[in-house]
């Protein structure tokens, strides 16, 4: 029966499938310590889901085992025309939707064959410690960057789970157990030193958090190391030797041509992202939702995306965006975007007399106290 369940999981399109016991995740204590240290930053949903995550059967009674699933994704770097980078996972159709559909299909198949009546399904922002359960199912092994690694896919795969109401034997030994050994490539390469010790990432320092989850001003120490990243960050995965031979599965996510890796591909640019901060308020949210429909890039909203575009422009060699930044400094509705534009100008264009004068003027007339203070810091550090 277990083999048939796993076969169906592969059949509906998952690359990896295994069974974990339905109980507290092995890393529950690590998760609690991580929360207690405040390493989740402003991701309040993780704190709210704490009780469920450390004891899932108490939150979802009736489960007997957990079907853990993995889906490989794109491998090629995603570079915007003119400069700026997007994390690979975010290029193309949103994996939450792609996986959600596959979970529904899987559920129907298991029911139709009378194998199980699956309970809740999980993917990403849910109170389940996915990597820990997936490791218990033998889908991979925990790495120093905290990513779950698989011998074939490296870190380049997503996780999802389905609670089953039948007792199935765990597949804990499915993956030949690899390990990081003495390698510290991810720890050494992380631009913001966000990997505090093996397996422990402080979100507040992580570029992925700063550009996807965080809604406010990015701390200067993190901002200065963002480099070209306009959404997410792949540095810890890129340097991981386990991922170097992983297959590229971009086409699965209907990779959007505008996020293609071909030089000169038409479409999204950093100045395009920044422009969301200066568009007319009326209908802006709706237009943004439409432009990024079905894409993970929708998550930070128009001002978050504009902030990211502004920050990354300071590192885009081909598209320095001076004029777009000046225009955002002058007319962006949100202090967050004006402050980000000021920082980028101070960092990349301070030698330009016109820019210097515009920045001095902007600081003087900035009505938002936090943004004005942030601009002053940018000028000092610039
Ligand atoms: C919150 C969150 C984030 C936060 C915090 C990340 C973090 N490291 O905790 C931020 C926004 C920073 C983030 C970033 C990313 N995320 Co994220 N994220 C999550 C989420 C929702 C919860 C993670 C969590 O609870 N963290 C708390 C810590 C304590 O738990 P953990 O890291 O899962 O637990 C592992 C470590 O603690 C490790 N560990 C702890 N101590 C030690 C000690 C040693 C010695 C070792 C070896 C390991 C080890 O073992 C645990 C089990 O594997 C999960 C989905 C989910 N519901 O689980 C996705 C998830 C982890 N994210 C994912 C992805 C793809 C990413 C990014 C790669 C996206 C990107 N390119 O920008 C980056 C990677 C950053 C990184 N190195 O972690 C995938 C990971 C897939 C995989 N193969 O591992 C997940 C599973 C989503 C999914 N469904 O596919 N993420």
Q: What layout of secondary structure does this protein have?
A:
Layout: H1 2-11, E1 16-21, H2 28-36, H3 44-48, H4 50-54, H5 56-59, E2 65-72, E3 78-79, E4 85-86, H6 95-112, E5 121-122, H7 130-136, E6 141-142, E7 148-149, E8 157-164, H8 185-189, E9 195-197, E10 200-201, H9 207-213, H10 220-223, E11 229-231, H11 235-238, H12 270-274, H13 284-291, H14 301-313, H15 322-331, H16 335-348, H17 353-365, H18 369-381
Parallel strand pairs: 4-11
Antiparallel strand pairs: 1-2, 2-8, 3-4, 5-8, 6-7, 9-10
Bound molecules: cobalamin (B12).
Cobalamin (B12) binds next to helix 2, helix 7, strand 8, strand 10 and helix 9.
Question: pLDDT under 50 segments (min length 5)?
Answer: 257-266
What percent of the residues sit in helical stretches (DSSP H or I)?
Answer: 40-55%
How are the strands of the largest sheet arranged? 1-2-8-5
Which descriptor suits the 3D outline? elongated
Structural class: alpha+beta
* Rg over C-alpha atoms, rounded to the nearest angstrom: 22 Å
Instruction: Give the beta-strand count.
Output: 11
**H/E order of the elements?**
HEHHHHEEEHEHEEEHEEHHEHHHHHHHH
Strand content: 5-15%
- Give the averaged pLDDT, no decimals: 92
- Distance from N terminus to C terminus (CA atoms, Å) equals 63 Å
Q: Number of DSSP helices?
A: 18
Bound molecules: cobalamin
Q: Mind describing the biggest β-sheet?
A: 4 strands, antiparallel
